[in-house]
Every structure is written in structure tokens, then in C-alpha cells.
Amino acid sequence: MKMIHSKSFFTFLLLLILLSVAGFSGCIGGSDTSGNNTANSSGSGFGSESVTVWSSSDYEGFTDQTVLAKGRQFVNSSVTIQTGETVRIWNREDQAHYDHLYHSEDGAFKDIRVNALDSTYLVFNKPGTYKIDLYNPDTNSFYGTTGNTVLTVTVTKP
């Protein structure tokens, strides 16, 4: 075998390996663009029987109510929807390091960490009143009583 063929073979093999790695990299680990550390990015939501949580990449465009969160507080303190409807909580902080951690007081879902300018979507499957606290994700503690740091979601039957 000549040196040119051997060099071509190794170049081809290296190119094949690089393409394989690049092709499979999207399949391993997923891409969690919402900052949601507990998100299932396989295209299905997670949560509980009462509330289903979706990352923004999975659920974009299916919103019945949007709640903005900026300045480490909710712009609205409450929202009323019907069962099966969706609330989008949109972190409107403009600094990249201003993540939010949304905590369900009654354990309807696991804590959701959302990066600045990203969203999470909550589908409420059962009627009731749900309280969502805005936590500091770095200390995993409540931001306090200044401003609207608790969002009350009232879910009624259709």
C-alpha cells in the first residue's frame, strides 16, 4: 500500500469519526435551553398529576396566560385559568446570571430553574389554588416579602 492511500484512509477515518461524534452529540445529554435543570427534553412534560411542566423548547406557542417575572418578582401576583390551560412563566431578567427558581409550595412540581429570558410552561390538570414562590437559585431560599414573590394560580373547572 502506498503512503498516499494510507494517508487518505486515515483522513477518511478521522472525518468519519468526527461526523459520527457531531451527529450523536445532539442525542446524548439533550439541550436544556430553558435552564430547567429537571426538565425532560424528550418531548414530554414532567411533574405530577396536578401540574405538568414543559421546557420552552418543548411547549413554545401553547400559552393561555403569560406571567412575567422581572426584578426578582412576579409582575402579576395572581392568575386565574381553567383546568387543562397553560401558564407560561417568563423570566424577563436581562442579565445572564439572573436565573429564577420556581418552587411549588404544595409540591405540585419539583423546583424549576429558568435562565434569564427563558420560560417554563405549567399545564394545570386539576382545579385548585397553587402558590409558586420565586426563589434565589444560588441559595435555594425565598427572595422574601418585598414585591410579588409569590404567584397564586387559581384553577377552575371549565
From TrEMBL:
SUPFAM superfamilies assigned to the protein according to its UniProt record, in alphabetical order: Cupredoxins (SSF49503)
Protein name: EfeO-type cupredoxin-like domain-containing protein
Domain of life: Archaea
Source organism of this protein record: Methanolapillus africanus
InterPro entries attached to this UniProt entry: Cupredoxin
